[in-house]
């Protein structure tokens, strides 16, 4: 066994964000004859890829004089949970408060975590974006009312810029620039667009493929230019019904749609056969990478994102009752 020596000291929570490992996914690679590599974003200190966006958004606000460290400003955001966790932890480290608005349908684990770390959590019924009661609009109104800073992750370009500056260049450095394709799901589009921009800057031939769950309208947007959706998914934090500012102009070549059964197959497979404990969006990303690998043929290098960890979804993806209720298969060791 070789142990990599740590060579530097991180400056607190914020200094520990990013520089995540790029992990070879053995079974996906062996099954396709490609190198399928997962960027281990679940290893960020707040547990997800959204730590990067949270930091980029807060640093941008500070640079523009909208927040001042230590002056107990308030950050307000609507989120499926992970951005709220990242924002609250950065806020704690910088001396701000946070108000987090979240649809009540999201996992209990993320709600409990947010309360544990001191967020002022406001749960709202899940409503479509066109409804004024949608969590994004509620968060904007709360920010206006309390004079807080609205992070606006969907349309704040600091989000994708953070990934263009960090996640993308890290992937290039870790692969020596040898990347044939990149697959990524989309919530705000920050990760997909930011990494896509960085990879295409380096090599315009890199194929960028959106990994979409059922029920999202982006697959049809990429394939036909039309925004339409059908079906639904138990995945959280991904799937989108509109083209966010972060997605606009992103260099996306193609899209694949991944059903929940295929997503769960990857989540369980990675856990039981490789010891990698990841959430549903990571399962969708890996399933998409395998599909792209099969389409491109052996010998290619495909990178994807392992967005967060399985423990955030224990009560859903690993709960036989929940799975049966959704008509989904229960893995044998839980059955
Ligand atoms: N996976 C998970 C688990 C998430 O919480 C999110 C963010 N909502 C994403 C993927 C998508 O990331 P992005 O917002 O950068 O598109």
TrEMBL record:
<dbReference type="InterPro" id="IPR036052">
    <property type="entry name" value="TrpB-like_PALP_sf"/>
</dbReference>
<dbReference type="InterPro" id="IPR050214">
    <property type="entry name" value="Cys_Synth/Cystath_Beta-Synth"/>
</dbReference>
<keyword id="KW-0028">Amino-acid biosynthesis</keyword>
<dbReference type="InterPro" id="IPR001926">
    <property type="entry name" value="TrpB-like_PALP"/>
</dbReference>
<dbReference type="InterPro" id="IPR001216">
    <property type="entry name" value="P-phosphate_BS"/>
</dbReference>
<dbReference type="Pfam" id="PF00291">
    <property type="entry name" value="PALP"/>
</dbReference>
<dbReference type="GO" id="GO:0004124">
    <property type="term" value="F:cysteine synthase activity"/>
</dbReference>
<keyword id="KW-0808">Transferase</keyword>
<keyword id="KW-0663">Pyridoxal phosphate</keyword>
<keyword id="KW-0809">Transit peptide</keyword>
<protein>
    <submittedName>
        <fullName>Cysteine synthase</fullName>
        <ecNumber>2.5.1.47</ecNumber>
    </submittedName>
</protein>
<comment type="pathway">
    <text>Amino-acid biosynthesis.</text>
</comment>
<dbReference type="GO" id="GO:0006535">
    <property type="term" value="P:cysteine biosynthetic process from serine"/>
</dbReference>
């Amino acid at each position: 066994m070789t142990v990599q020596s740590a060579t530097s000291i991180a400056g607190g929570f914020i200094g520990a964000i990013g520089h995540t490992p790029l992990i070879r996914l053995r079974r996906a690679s062996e099954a396709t004859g490609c190198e399928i590599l997962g960027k281990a974003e679940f290893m960020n200190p707040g547990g997800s890829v959204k730590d990067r966006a949270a930091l980029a958004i807060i640093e941008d606000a500070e640079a523009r004089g909208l927040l001042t460290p230590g002056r107990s400003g308030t950050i307000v955001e609507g989120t499926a949970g992970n951005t709220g966790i990242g924002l609250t932890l950065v806020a704690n480290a910088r001396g701000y408060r946070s108000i987090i608005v979240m649809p009540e349908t999201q996992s209990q684990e993320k709600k409990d975590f947010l309360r544990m770390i001191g967020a002022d959590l406001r749960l709202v019924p899940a409503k479509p974006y066109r409804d004024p009661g949608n969590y994004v609009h509620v968060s904007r109104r709360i920010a206006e009312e309390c004079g807080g800073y609205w992070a606006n992750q969907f349309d704040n370009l600091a989000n994708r810029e953070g990934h263009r500056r960090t996640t993308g260049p890290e992937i290039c450095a870790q692969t020596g620039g040898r990347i044939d394709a990149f697959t990524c799901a989309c919530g705000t589009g920050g990760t997909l667009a930011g990494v896509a921009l960085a990879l295409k800057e380096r090599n315009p031939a890199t194929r960028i493929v959106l990994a979409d769950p059922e029920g999202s309208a982006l697959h049809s947007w990429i394939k036909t230019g039309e925004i339409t959706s059908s079906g639904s998914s138990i995945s959280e934090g991904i799937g989108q019904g509109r083209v966010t500012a972060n997605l606009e102009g992103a260099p996306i070549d193609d899209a694949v749609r991944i059903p929940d059964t295929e997503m769960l197959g990857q989540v369980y497979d990675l856990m039981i056969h490789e010891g990698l404990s990841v959430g549903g969006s990571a399962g969708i990303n890996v399933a998409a990478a395998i599909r792209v690998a099969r389409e491109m043929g052996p010998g290619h290098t495909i990178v994807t994102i392992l967005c967060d960890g399985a423990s955030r979804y224990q009560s859903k993806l690993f709960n036989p009752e929940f799975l049966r209720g959704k008509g989904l298969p229960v893995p044998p060791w839980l059955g």
